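[job 4471] stage=fold_predict status=RUNNING
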Amino acid sequence: MTGAAAGLIFTFLLATAYGAGFHLLVGGPARRLPLYILASWLGFTVGHFLGAVVGINWFKLGTVHLLTASLGSWLTLVLARWLSRPEEVESGENNE
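[job 4471] inference complete, writing structure tokens
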């Protein structure tokens, strides 16, 4: 296995774990799990490339920019949760 393939598999597994862990942390219906995993993959990818373009080399593992990729993943997860909440607000669960 080449280094690029190993890095790709590692990032795929880590981003998937972030999405699943976020779902476990915040709860909610099972139908949101795919949303959180996809959001995590997207945020991880964007964060990694942003870290490469800007040149942030802190907490880097091989060619993977873990710091910026992880931040991108978690920010995207929070955004996905925030955007997926309108149905709960409309049903009156958050009314005082």
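[job 4471] summary: Strands lie at 60-61, 64-65.
[job 4471] exit 0
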